[in-house]
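S1.2 Input.
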Amino acid sequence: KNAVAFRCVDEIARGVSQAKPVIYRLEKDGLRRELHDHPAALLLRRPNPLWPRARFFYALTAHMAIGGNA
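S1.3 Output.
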């Protein structure tokens, strides 16, 4: 067990888990419009019915950082 490696993974996973996932559509005028009701946006808001979004993305990111696999 390496405390330095754990700390690095923890910092990365915390940062990712705190980010707000957003789905945009690029309009013809070049502006982005946020899509609140898009199925992907709904999924990203609640990816797992058992865990809050932040916990899910923390675990996903930590697993990817440690093993390169989710």
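S1.4 Remarks. The first helix runs from residue 3 to 18.
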